[in-house]
Amino acid sequence: MRKTNRSRASLAAVIIGFFLIGIIVPIVLNSIDSYQAMRKGWPRDVQYLAHPVFRMLVVLIGWMAVNKILNAQRRPTLGLLVGWKQGFKGFVLGFVCSLPMLALGLLCDRNALSRDLVHLTIVPGLTEEIFYRAFAFGLMVQVLRLGLWPAAILTGVLFGLAHLISASVRAQPIMDQLGWIGMIALGGLFYAWVYERANWNLWVVVALHAGMNLWWDVFDLASSPMGAWGATLSRILAVGIAIYFVVFRGVLRPSESGDASRIRA
């Protein structure tokens, strides 16, 4: 029993510790003027990729440490190696669920396309879901046996707060900042719920996240006939459709004749 408790404490220290490192280090670095000045001299792609790549290294090292502690026990999943059929199915479903934002965008003005579009859409859609949902939320539930909602709320709130690193968010009035943080945190909570109910298929939330980012950057959704409310409603509708198909219809659940294991390598 003591050995089990020590292992559980070690696992909690690794998962929570690496999660906090991945959040805090970029925030601290961004607060250092000399670092910011040095970063501006880097190639543009490197500027965008530095922090996401750092977080992926954090995930890799943390994942290796978790599996070393678990030793011969069955390994948890990060939801990436789900088989190409399930991965493709999850990705297509997630992207299709983002289409309400495209439908609204067709009624709006278009933003000037940026050469950084991939860095603003696909990169965060992939790396943030790996870091917040697969590593932090997923391992808290699968390994630490924390309840779905406590883990989703904790990681969702930190997901929202971490966006204060964005200059565009910090430049807004405080009430607008709180609104943005609250909306992002709520989105993170629902992403976590969808991820767990999708039998740990991360691709559905990667595609949903990246698709929503894409339509937000391509179109000025606040210019719709409904104003800012239109953008909010289109986001809610996108996540709601994903919840309907994944949670209530069980589209990505394994069949009864298939492998119903919820934890796999």
Nutshell version of this structure?
With 265 residues, this protein is mainly alpha-helical.
List the helices and strands and how they pair.
Elements: H1 2-30, H2 33-40, H3 44-70, H4 84-97, H5 99-105, E1 109-110, H6 117-142, H7 148-162, H8 167-170, H9 174-197, H10 203-218, E2 219-220, H11 228-248
Antiparallel strand pairs: 1-2
Helix pairs in contact: 1-3, 1-6, 3-6, 4-10, 5-10, 5-11, 6-7, 6-9, 6-10, 7-9, 9-11
Sheet of most strands: 2 strands, antiparallel
Number of helices: 11
Strand order of the largest sheet: 1-2
Number-wise, the strands total: 2
Structural class: mainly alpha
- As a percent range, the share of strand residues is under 5%
Q: Tell me the series of helices and strands, N- to C-terminal.
A: HHHHHEHHHHHEH
Distance between the termini: 26 Å
Q: Tell me the overall shape.
A: globular
Rg value: 19 Å
